[in-house]
Amino acid sequence: MAELLSGRAAAAAIRADVAARIAQLGFAPRLALLRVGDDPDDLAYIRSIERQCETVGAETEHFTLPLGCNTEDLLRSIDTVNRRADLHGCLLLRPLPAGIDEHAVCDALLPEKDIDGMSSQSLGALFVGNRWAFAPCTAQACVELLDYYHLPLAGLHAVILGRSLVVGRPLGQLLLQRDATVTLCHSKSRELPLLCRSADLLIAAVGQVGLVDKQCLRGDQIVLDVGTTMCGEQLMGDVNAADADALVRAYSPVPGGVGAVTTAVLLRNLVTAAERAVH
Q1: Arithmetic mean of pLDDT over the chain
Q2: Tens digits of per-residue pLDDT, 116-128?
Q3: Which of 21, 104, 54 lies closest to 278, judged by CA?
Q4: What average pLDDT score do residues 243-259 get?
Q5: 159 pairs with which residues across the strands?
Q6: CA distance 109 to 80
Q7: What is the pLDDT of residues 91-109, one digit of tens each?
Q8: I need a surface site. Which of 73, 95, 145, 211 has the fewest CB within 10 A?
Q9: Segment 244-247 long-range contacts (CB within 8 Å, at least 24 positions apart)
Q10: CA 174 to CA 170: how far, in whole Å?
């Protein structure tokens, strides 16, 4: 039976550190939550963030635009966030509706407030190794979870399924910085099961339920399941959990794995941004 890499304990440790740093800071860092419309998944995610902010002593402020807004409307909201010294970080809920220039909106945010690493400037800094940049929180959460369980990365062959700018590509850079050897796979990759089986560390971040099954797995692997898909009322991952449990060394579940760490990383980035703002 595989070791279960639960994210809840790792997230609790990060939140404890964040709460202690906020107490030392002497004021409550404030997070701007920017969204378009009232998508139920967005609202559920925001409620989760609000609860976690309350537990560590941070605050949130909503910027909600109606469906039918345009790029200029969002850019005005970003400008407000940029100008207000009492807002230390911004989370833009994506994807944005069709017709909005998502790249322009992301790139308008000041890098010091880009705590989810979504702008070209933040991503570029990450890719050249500048430590001031915030990495996308889900990508960073993968590394945090591995570190929490004392799983060394140097020398491992890491195979990442998915090349998005939210997880796959930035995570590849984070792992390279930790001396892993990285293979980045995508929909055009050939012989995917063979590539997966070659991995010491396999990360699935596609959003396709059950994509990783027994033909992709072997013993002594570490598997992180990042992909999430709602199937009715159940949240499902990319990895067949029964196959992983029977075959690999360790794996993270969905839910309760990497996702549980992601918001904790966001809070840590928020307090870091607040600390930098006063020093």
Answers
A1: 96
A2: 999 999 999 999 9
A3: 21
A4: 97
A5: 183, 202
A6: 10
A7: 999 999 999 999 999 999 9
A8: 95
A9: 244/2, 244/212, 244/217, 245/1, 245/2, 246/1, 246/2, 246/214, 247/2, 247/214, 247/217, 247/218, 247/219, 247/221
A10: 6
